[in-house]
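Any chance you could type out a protein's amino acid sequence plus the matching backbone structure tokens because I've never seen that pairing?

——
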Amino acid sequence: MVLFGLVTLGCFDSVRLGVRNGALKVKGGRRPVTTASSIFARLLRLPLPRTFHRWFGAIKVGLDVAAWATALICAAIVRYRIAGIGMSNTTVLRAIGVVTLAQVASGWKFNLYRGGWRYGSFDEVAALTRTVGFATLIGGISELFRNPRVPLSAFFIGSCFALLIMISTRYVWRLVQELRRRPEATDAERLLIYGAGDRGFGIVQDLLTDKVGQYVPVAFIDDDPTKSRLTIRGIHVRGSRASIGLVAREYRASSLLIAMTSVPADLMREVLAIADSCDPPLQVKVLSPLAELFGTDSSQIQDLTEEDLLGRRRIDTDVESIAAYVRGKRVLVTGAGGSIGSELCRQLVAHQPAELLMLDRDESALHAVQLTLEGRALLDTPNVILADLRDQPRVDQIFDLHRPQVVFHAAALKHLPLLESYPAEAVKSNVWGTSTVLQAAMKYDVERFVNISTDKAADPTSVLGYSKRLAERLTAFAADTATTGTYVSVRFGNVLGSRGSVLHTFRSQIAEGGPLTLTHPDITRFFMLIPEAVQLVIQAGAIGRQGEVMVLDMGEPVKIADMANALIRRSRRPIELVYTGLREGEKLHEDLLGAQDIDSRPFHHLIVHSTVPPLCFGSVRGVDVKSSPDLLRNSLKGLCNVSGQCRHSS
């Protein structure tokens, strides 16, 4: 019986592997061959009668009863002869009847015959084992009292045979079902899977039963030497990432799927370089974030994004649990049409504020953000506000009319080289504009004020950095002097995909055929995604303490030259990379924290709580914006370093 079970499993494994490798028409592979396994596969695909599904539960009971009968008869023949006693047909039939009743009763109790488990799953096998054990115990005790001369070992041997037969039938049926779900022929791409862990197993499981059949897994790649002989659902681990080229050639693979939840930037770039060096080059794929929710069908396999090229993954700051402070409140977002401001509006809407006020001086930007939020952009609602923060009477009027309770200050000029040429504009918008909004917030008793800053404010060397550092200090001053409300700043690095970002520039240059321009081969920057930057901003309003600067730990900085080369390789075009030299005020490497900043993380391990010295409003009002750019830059630099006392009346 054991031999029969093993042979049965082996035969069906051969059929399964033969069908996968022979009956599929795979892109880049051999033509389908008519074999015994492929003919058998076609027979198994014949439609089942409708009554079969209706009586499937009864069929399962019948198969299990037949398994018990077969197992007990065989066990009795063997055991009675060994015991040297005569075998009574009545005794065997009575034992079969008792154990059958016990099997059905316990199977009903353990939900085995009521559709409680997926047929052929590990959960059903566990329930089946409990059921068989219970039936064996009942049958053995019954026969012990009826006929003490009957060897109880026959029941235990028979139960093992019965369990093996039941498991075998379920295994065979599960293979049949998987085979029926596979398409007979498909132009599937042969896929290498990098990562033979739990996620890799799940991917193979899903792809082998994917009705669309766009991809078929052919081999695993894994760097763990202990997995070098591992086989998952008939798919073998064929080597480490150094073997990708050889394995791709052997299996005629056209794509490589990275089956990992988080890939470091250096590893991602190395895998991309290996894939590009293959002949022909492999298309590198990743999983959509939705794959964790809906499984890995073909639609969840997608091309690399710029975020993947950087090895950057979103950091969850658990906004939902702390964003209650905006629910039911009047919320104002300045700079609502910008990359950060518009995403802020989108995320804030989900937290159900009483009113979301969107302020910007760019009417086209307001049009775009209202269109994304409301599906229309008539610009005729009072929550869409066209105004310039340089106009103090207008700002006071807005606060007096709408009485916002929470303010997110995202309005700012941000392009470093332009502000180096026109520092007076940085003063008017980033410094005086922030001062105007802060004073209005204090006057009208805003409950929470969040100023959005940049990593260039840490030990600043540029006009942009000076202006944002001063904005942080002005916010700290408001925190010291306001009678009500909480005033904090949020500091983060470059934002992927924002307008004017390096990725946006590189995309445009590649679309035009190059060259890509970069200031220095060794320049590095911190990067984060727009959604996680906004999550930090929202969370800062909840956990930030009076006057603090919140800084997100953004991991390791990214070398921009590596990012540029990865984008060039991905474009598969001969694009030149040109170095233009560092610009005035530009750092080679940015810092998230300045030399005097404190690294304290009391609430979240990825969020730093630091402080900056306050600076009163009167100090910045004395800046002479009509002076030469050089004098103005020096004035801003000096203000960043002065102590907190006020040099002018506020």
In short: The first strand starts at residue 26 and ends at 27. The CA atoms of residues 69 and 93 lie 8 Å apart. The first helix runs from residue 2 to 23. The chain has 23 helices and 22 strands.
